[in-house]
Amino acid sequence: MKPKPVARRASTSPRRSAKLWQLHLYVAGQTPKSQTAFSNLKKFCESHLKGCYRIRVIDLVKQPQLAKGDQILATPTVVRKLPKPMRTIIGNLFDTDRVLVGLDLRPAL
Amino acid sequence: MKNALFMKNNGYKPASRAAQLPKCPTGIQGLDEITSGGLPRGRPTLVCGGAGCGKTLLAAEFLVRGAVEFGEPGVLMAFEETEAELKANVASLGFDLAGLVRSKKIVIDYVHIEPSEVQESGDYDLEGLFVRLNHAIDSIGAKRVVLDTLEVLFAGLPNQTILRSELRRLFRWLKDKGVTAVITAERGREQLTRHGLEEYVSDCVISLDHRVNDQIATRHLRVVKYRGALHGTNEFPFLIGSEGISVLPITSLALNHKVSTERIATGIHRLDAMLGGRGFFRGSSILLTGTSGTGKTIISSNFAQAAGRRGERVLFFSFEESPNQIIRNMHSIGLRLEPLVKRGLLRFQSARPSLYGLEMHLATMFKEIAAFQPHVVIIDPITSLMDAGTDSECKGMVTRLIDYLKAGQVTSLFTSLTQGGHVLQQSESAMSSLMDAWLLLQDFEGNGERNRVLYVLKARGMAHSNQIREFLISDRGIDLVDAYIGPNGVLTGSARAAQNSLEKAALLASQQEAAQLKREVERKRTALERQINGLRSDYETEALELQRIAEQVGTRTFVLNTERAASGLLRQADANVASSTRSNSRNGRH
């Protein structure tokens, strides 16, 4: 699972279309859980942030020293590095509504 | 299985250490004694307690001592305090955490969770935490791990089900990793920890407590559980001093110190004489009680000086006077302490009793004693410390102190201030049973003056005088004199002096009278002799006279007879001649 930068301008993005979204997905090894998370994130970004997002996947098993920087405890974790402020979502991103809230795309209900 | 084996072995060989679980020494003073060797090696230990009772410090000391003293690197995973905060906090205990981090003996990983910034979505695990911990452990080959305070996770992660199963996995993982871990947790209302962490850590649980009793706060430590090992179950007071934590296990002390038969002089000749002539035993504990101004400090100072003159080191804990004040005051009775101070034989340690709690005092004293290695320790007065704690605490403290001193063959002198009167205070009677010797100083009031007297109430293992002694303080030092004990009771001071001079006068008078009588007898004898001599010479004179007279009478009779015969012849008086002849012949017949 390589980092997959996607940088296309998206017409469907409802808000903040001008900004580039930089997302880090922290996983611990190539587990079904991490693969589910990646595919869920990809799906989410395609539908909500099409064309203006970058996903970087960080495997903590390979790069454990990176866990400290973003205060990673749980895996999988998505960190919104940009736009600021930083946001963190933990879990396999199964619940899309919560991802929307977590990424500040929709205010908490 | 391991436990059963241990139990079996322990049943047969209680003293065998090999049979016990492998222990990981904490290096924390006293804790290793209570746990007979330390925490269970390769297993997690839970340290729980309320806020501010020293959990983090205990855990940090465990790591630092492990790294410094036992060559075991450690990982500190902090959930509450940042690395910088931790470094600053433990620096106050003299731990160079920053230096240890630089020299790769310790790794600090600050784990921060901001609940407001975290959104949960779907399933997850805490593998990230495991990875971080694993990375930290492997980066320095850590043998010890501290997780301080794991419970922060409960606030940061809403999904309790996942969290609990992950914690269970974490403790399992720590065991498999073979590290000795300390996990701290907040005390809960009805259980040991707020979130029931004791459920996961079953090998060793230590509970810390910070109680305020009568305005005095004391920390306590208790080993709640230690699977597979003997441990003290009591609550032990502990304190956080400038050199870390020290637990004071009173009940672990045993009465098995060796004793000395050597005697040491008190510096007061007559007092030595009262104690069988040779003073106190070395290593004994001496209690000196007395009301205010009876000379307790003076006797103590004498004792100190005597020890200093023998070349022994003396540590003088003063809770009422400053060192300079004592030196000045002793100067007034001709006692020079400053040369001893200059030679390093006498060290004063002055502190107000209210400066800190009893345990802190005790720890400070232990530290001073360990550093100075004195032969004699003087505590003046111990009663000041009594105010800093409850009775049982004080007795416990004195017991610990005495045991500590006796173990090192240090002679200890405690002075105790009594409230006056003849009733000895409760605390004293409790304390006196701990003491080997007990001197009582008293004031005798009368004749408009107060006089100091001294008794030896008790002196274990030596013949001692039961007599009262008057205790005199002059500019040449102190002296003990026999108090007057006579038909008029016990007299001291000027009354004793008056009585003495009265007796002296009476003695002089009777001596004079005797001499007078003797002279009288002599005079009478001479008079008698003179009289006898006079009489004798009278007699002799008279006798001579009488003899002369008798001779004269004899001569006259003869002359008369001769004359009568002659005249008879002349007168022819035959009858007369015949009768005289007849009478002569009758006489001859007779």
Keywords:
heterodimer; A: about 110 residues; alpha+beta; Glutaredoxin; 5-stranded mixed beta sheet; 5 strands; globular; B: about 600 residues; alpha/beta; Rossmann fold; 2 domains; 9-stranded mixed beta sheet; 18 helices; about 25% strand
Spell out the blueprint of helices and strands.
The complex is a heterodimer of chains A (109) and B (590).
Chain A: E1 4-5, E2 21-27, H1 32-48, E3 53-59, H2 66-69, E4 77-82, E5 87-90, H3 96-102
Parallel strand pairs in A: 2-3
Antiparallel strand pairs in A: 1-3, 2-4, 4-5
Chain B: H1 2-12, E1 23-24, H2 31-34, E2 39-40, E3 44-49, H3 55-69, E4 74-78, H4 83-91, H5 97-102, E5 106-110, E6 118-120, H6 127-140, E7 144-148, H7 152-156, H8 160-177, E8 180-186, E9 204-213, E10 216-226, E11 235-241, E12 244-247, E13 263-264, H9 269-274, E14 280-281, E15 285-290, H10 296-309, E16 314-318, H11 323-331, H12 338-342, E17 346-350, H13 358-372, E18 376-380, H14 382-386, H15 391-407, E19 411-417, H16 426-432, E20 437-446, E21 449-459, E22 469-474, E23 477-482, E24 484-486, E25 489-491, H17 493-571, H18 574-589
Parallel strand pairs in B: 3-8, 3-9, 4-5, 4-7, 7-8, 15-19, 15-20, 16-17, 16-18, 18-19
Antiparallel strand pairs in B: 1-2, 9-10, 10-11, 11-12, 13-14, 20-21, 21-22, 22-23, 24-25
Helix pairs in contact in B: 13-15
